[in-house]
Every structure is written in C-alpha cells, then in structure tokens.
Design goal:
Helix 4 links the parallel strand 4 and strand 5. This protein has 11 helices and 7 strands. With about 260 residues, the protein is an alpha/beta fold. Helix 7 crosses helix 11, helix 8 runs antiparallel to helix 9 and helix 10 packs antiparallel against helix 11.
C-alpha cells in the first residue's frame, strides 16, 4: 500500500491510492481526517479520552462503537438520533470509531473493554452517572429512530417522543385492554396541558370516547375509513390531520384483535 501526496495551501492531501481497495485506504486515513467525519451533535471519543468524558458527573452518554467507514441505514439513523437529542440537558451522544486496517485505531480498546470485534459493530451502550462502568447495551433496531428514543426515555433520558406520544401510547393500550373513565380523564389532562401543542394529542381522547361509545370494533372500522379518505383529494392540512389520526389509531390497534396493514 502506498499513497501519493500533494501539498495544497500548506496541507498534505492524498491524491492517489494504490493496491488497497478504496474503502481500506480510507479507513487507514481516518485518524488524519477524524473531525471531518464526526456527525454534528456527536462527541468523538477514543481510548485516551473515553474515561475522561464518559462518567462525568450529571452527564449521561449514549456511545456508538462502529467502523469509521460505517454507512447505510444505521448511519442515517445515528445522524437523526444526534439531531433529535441535541437539546436534551445532561445528555450527550458519543462515537468511538474503530479502524479495521492500518493502525487498528481503537480496535484493541473496544475489544478488551467491551468484548466487541469488528463483526459485532455497530454497537451502542448507555452510560449513566453512578451506573455500571461498562454501561448498558442497547439491543433494539439500529435502523429506526423511535425504538432508540423509547429505550432512552425508559431509562430516564428526557428526549422528546418521535411521532406519537409515549405517555398517551401507554394509556391507549391500557384503555383497549380495560376501558376505564379514569384513563380517559388522565389522557385528557395530558392532551390539554402537557402535550397541548402536539398535533397527535387530541386524537387519543377522541378515539377513546368513540371506543367507549361503539366498542373496540371502532378501531378497525375507523382505520379503514381513514385509509379510504386518504386516497381521495384532500387539502395538505386535512391530509396531515388524517395521517396523524391514522398513526394514533395504529397505537390502539396494537392491543386489539385488529392489526392494521403496514
């Protein structure tokens, strides 16, 4: 493997890569390019800085371990995750890049400390103040944002929900199993006070009241009706409203006999 370099404005720039494939050559240059490939909202970590930052008082870290050349759907989801959580106080997303070729940057650290080899990447671990030194491993989908956010919220990270509202989702499923006016009252309180700005919130209460009136069969009937409405000509505002309603109906459907089509 050899590189041909040129000098441009005082910087050494690789212009030719020979013998190794392009991906391998790029991997060997990652420490050189490092900061340029860091996702906005993510903190670059390595074997020298990991313990200095992770475990800091009052700061929770979600750390991704992956090849520097990581790409595909999971990389897009990671970028979305960083953007979605960037405003959460006391929470940071970290990234440990692992080099497969050349200097094997961070490879020994990741394998010795966490037991990951290259075939087990990407991997994510959550580190909380006062928690386990090695963190808690995330075992959900790497290609969808909502499972990530739900998992983080369940562990105390105050990230905003994705699409529907987790607290009202739980009440919707509870109501389908055990119709109770107290559930409607609590849902109404959340929808009108805590989540009054959400375009989804009011639909939870409306659907609960319809189920109370017509029974759980309403979920299937209304889902089919809304799907037909969406096939027609609607204003952009009406179309968005119906899509929001359909999303909430799908939450109710997950605990009923009816399972909507994807």
């Amino acid at each position: 493997f050899w590189l041909k370099f040129s000098c441009k404005r005082g910087r050494v720039v690789p212009v030719t890569m020979v013998r190794l494939g392009l991906r391998s050559a790029l991997c060997s240059l990652v420490p050189f390019w490092g900061a340029a490939v860091t996702i906005q909202g993510a903190v670059r970590l390595d074997s020298a800085t990991f313990d200095k930052l992770v475990g800091a008082p009052e700061t929770t870290f979600l750390v991704k371990f992956d090849e520097f050349s990581g790409y595909g759907d999971h990389a897009s989801t990671f970028e979305a995750l960083c953007k979605h959580t960037v405003e959460v106080k006391g929470f940071l997303v970290g990234e440990v890049g692992v080099q497969e070729h050349g200097d094997l940057y961070n490879q020994e650290f990741v394998q010795t400390r966490f037991g990951y080899n290259m075939t087990q990447l990407p991997a994510y671990r959550l580190f909380t103040p006062g928690g386990d030194r090695d963190g808690v491993e995330y075992d959900g989908s790497f290609t969808e944002l909502k499972p990530f956010i739900t998992w983080l919220r369940q562990r105390g990270v105050a990230a905003r929900s994705v699409d529907t509202i987790d607290e009202l989702d739980a009440l919707a499923r509870q109501y389908v199993q055990h119709a109770d006016d107290d559930v409607i009252a609590l849902a109404t309180q959340l929808a009108t006070k805590k989540f009054q700005d959400s375009p989804f919130a009011s639909w939870y209460v409306k659907i609960m009241n319809k189920i109370k009136e017509k029974g759980v069969a309403y979920i299937e009937q209304e889902t089919n009706r809304v799907q037909q409405v969406l096939e027609g000509r609607l204003t952009p505002e009406k179309q968005e409203d119906m899509k929001n309603k359909l999303m909430v109906l799908n939450i109710f459907a997950t605990k009923s006999d009816f399972q909507p089509s994807a």
